[in-house]
What does this fold into?
Amino acid sequence: MNAQTISRVPVALTIAGSDSGGGAGIQADLRTFAFHCVHGTSAITCVTAQNTLGVVRVDAMPIEAVVAQIRAVVEDIGVQAAKTGMLLNQEIIFAVAKQVEALQIDNLVVDPVMVSRTGAQLIDDDAVKILRNALIPKAAIVTPNRYEAQILSGLQIHSLDDMQAAAQIIQQNFGVKAVLVKGGGMQGNLRGVDIWFDGQKLETLTTKLVETKNTHGTGCTLSAAIAANLAMGKNLWEAVKQAKEYVTTALTYALDIGKGQGPVGHFFPLLQT
It folds into this structure.
């Protein structure tokens, strides 16, 4: 088959950090895109030295390099959807927001990486402010975890009612098409329960609970799967439902590697025995 006979495939862009351990960040995103038969492109915002035990070092990419990566991809290849992950600092966040607007990038999935699912803040307050004001309003969907949803909504989240209220506040305050408040950081029977709100429909999404310590990269993988489904032409609701099913199955085949928290099994059909 020569180049002229290969049909065009959907293209998705991840704007995120590199995980040297291969479990999260652009590595997880590109695996997820590939699983969905979507061509994956990337703009690296920072380089981390990390493994299953944690992060050892983080180095930010120069602003000019981040911008150049985004423009190089969009101006030549074009993208049908994009997602953001770890943007690290206020300068990178602002630059990414400007490019999203200038290049008219649609179907933007913002994973607002601010606080880990254990409650540890990952970026400073100035960066949080820029993320709130400059980038999130440009998203089609935003996918905060419990602690990020608390920051974005101003509510303390302890119950299903709190999650539902937070989703509605975030959607209304930021004007995004949809919000998915993730329950991975919740306790008891709310663990893994997500709340969807699109301005009209308020839905609770549940799947089977997978008992595993190897959950590294679940947030990255979920947002990447949503972007992949959007790139394939699915609507937001279908993209989210299918992404959640994908992550649940990938958790079932999570990789028990290293001495700490391993990643989900992105290519689970190859891991089935």
Strands lie at 11-19, 39-51, 54-60, 81-84, 108-110, 141-142, 178-181, 194-197, 202-205. The radius of gyration is 17 Å. The chain has nine helices and nine strands.
